[in-house]
Amino acid sequence: MNQVISLDVRSSLTADELTDVKNDVKEIDYVRILNQIISPDIRFHSVCLRPPENFDARFSCISRHYKYIFNGEGLDIEKMNEGAKKFLGQHDFRNVCKIDASKQITNFTRNIMSSKIERLPTREGFYIFDLKGSAFLWHQVRCMVAVLLLIGQGHEQPEIIDKLVNIEEFPSRPTYNMAHDIPLVLYDCEFPDDVKWICGDQIDRKVNHHLDMNGVWYELQVKSILADFMRDIVYKNCPVKFDRLVTNLGDGIGKTAQKYTPLNKRSRLDTAEVLNEKWRNKKARNQ
Questions:
Q1: Which of 51, 129, 169, 265 can pair with 55 through a Cys bridge, CB separation 3.0 to 4.6 Å?
Q2: Contact status, residue 252 vs residue 72, Cβ threshold 8 Å
């Protein structure tokens, strides 16, 4: 949500004026202009007029904070939290991501600074997987959530995470479905202290910010209530007995199966080395 983009834009200042930070108050009001032309569910609130040399919105980021929202019904939250803590620190996450061979990645070690399950105070029965790390692999968070949901359902024990990040025990990833993407939010991004953000001080702009976001919030709240009405009507008039095994994927639907196969007994994908080599060979053939 609190994300950053980098843009090359024109300036109202002369070359001489640009050398003095005091002239920044005379700069174009980029925040106001951008907010006038984009959808109301996207809002700019701050600008960095003097980014460090070679600044990059992606690669200059020093930490990323994700939140994954899920319904706790039928889940052992305590066990999930126990599993979440096992992600803390530096681990090899090749078995908890989707490998993109075109990137030719050989280092899958990432540092997780915070990993925990918290109750969502604004919505009864819902929880958040709160995660912060320096960087993440492709679909790493969705794979982490998928494993935690398996633990929450009692299909796996928290110790499975210790095994998945041990490439001697799991040289390659077992086959499993990733958690759904909709509940996943990149909540915040952290940058070095020399990236200075300026929040507009115009009262009208601040009021408009709040009114716009209140409108978005209100519309989504009403839609959520209507969805509750709809579900209650369907459940009341069309009762059904769920007698099939459903693996929770964080989408409210899940995946049905006749029986559950533990991760350590499932078929494995190719190792990262094999996937990388296959991609190189394919590229060579197409040249």
A1: 51
A2: no
